[in-house]
Amino acid sequence: MIARASFLGGIAAAATAATGGLDVWDSSGPQIRVLVTGDLRGSLPQVLADGTFVLGGRRWRGAPSTVGMPDGRMALVTTLDVDRYLQGVVPLEAPPSWPQQALAVQAIVARTYALGRRTLSRAFDVRADEGDQRWGGVDAETAPTSAAVQLTRGQTLTYDGGPAAVFYSSCCGGHTADIASAWGGAPLPYLRGVADPHCVPAPDYRWRRELPLSQVIAAFGARTGGTIAGASLADADDTGRPRAVILTGSETVSVPIAAFRRALGYDAIRSPWLRALHVDGTDAGARLVVEGSGRGHGVGLCQWGARYFAAAGAPAAEILAFYFPGTAVGSG
Ligand SMILES: [Zn+2]
Q1: Residues 24-29, mean pLDDT to the nearest whole number
Q2: What angle do CA 54, 59, 64 make, to 5 degrees?
Q3: How remote is the CA of residue 180 from the centroid of ligand 1, in Å?
Q4: Could you tell me the distance, in angstroms and rounded to a whole number, from the CA of residue 312 to the centre of ligand 1?
Q5: What is the pLDDT of residues 193-227, one digit of tens each?
Q6: What is the pTM of this model?
Q7: Between the CA of residue 146 and those of 16, 34, 150, what are the distances in Å?
Q8: Domain extents for the chain?
Q9: What is the whole-number distance in angstroms between the Cα of residue 173 and the centre of ligand 1?
């Protein structure tokens, strides 16, 4: 034990010197394998002495290895302590200026998500992009978010003694979404949706967009007879979110919300929670006016809500119990 502690102490000292003192833990936590790129295109990582490596102009942590993928390409996977990985994840999801307990919430949720993705069925556990959680590597790390990762070390969200399935998005718009209604599949008791009074000040709590009707016709006109004269919302689920958009030309079609967003863009149609839409004007100047609530899918944690909830003095465990009712913060 003494020899091992001494050995790790040497590594920790070197890492601390390289990162300004942020690395205070040993490497005894759970490991995670992160797919940095699925196609190396002939480049190789440049391994540095401080436990980091350079690839694609960015510095990353962990022990990199090349892996042959099923599609024949060479991928790069790095294996590292889950919390060293989270140091480069949390700052991309929660600005370092947010309250410490909001950063702690993000760290616990991101850790729960990552550990829930560990698998023996492929050569990596998580992707470094939005396919799982975006990981910015060393360059993305900030002191407040790294402190939140350390503060919550070992903590994950559990339900009924096992790991909870966690999701998060930017702003729920006043009520989080029901996972079964949003994505189909089996309902989860802690992901049925809750009324959220906390995110009211968020930038996308309510939004309004005007799209050229020609853009909507280009996307859906083949099914409406070449024109669109009217638009309305289909019936809503229990959280208030409509299930479809009804577009009327010479034919009337029902477009599921997911298809509507995909066709018109996630930046314009910022969430699935549409509150009103109508066609305004005629001819070349005609527009589709869309009003909605929130940003992102709305399932699970509302990140802006957590920010204001934490600013009001709530600790991370209380915030998580609000957005995931019936869960607890535990270790494992
Ligand atoms: Zn919210």
Answers
A1: 60
A2: 60
A3: 18
A4: 14
A5: 999 999 999 999 999 999 999 999 999 999 999 99
A6: 0.88
A7: 13, 18, 6
A8: 206-293
A9: 5
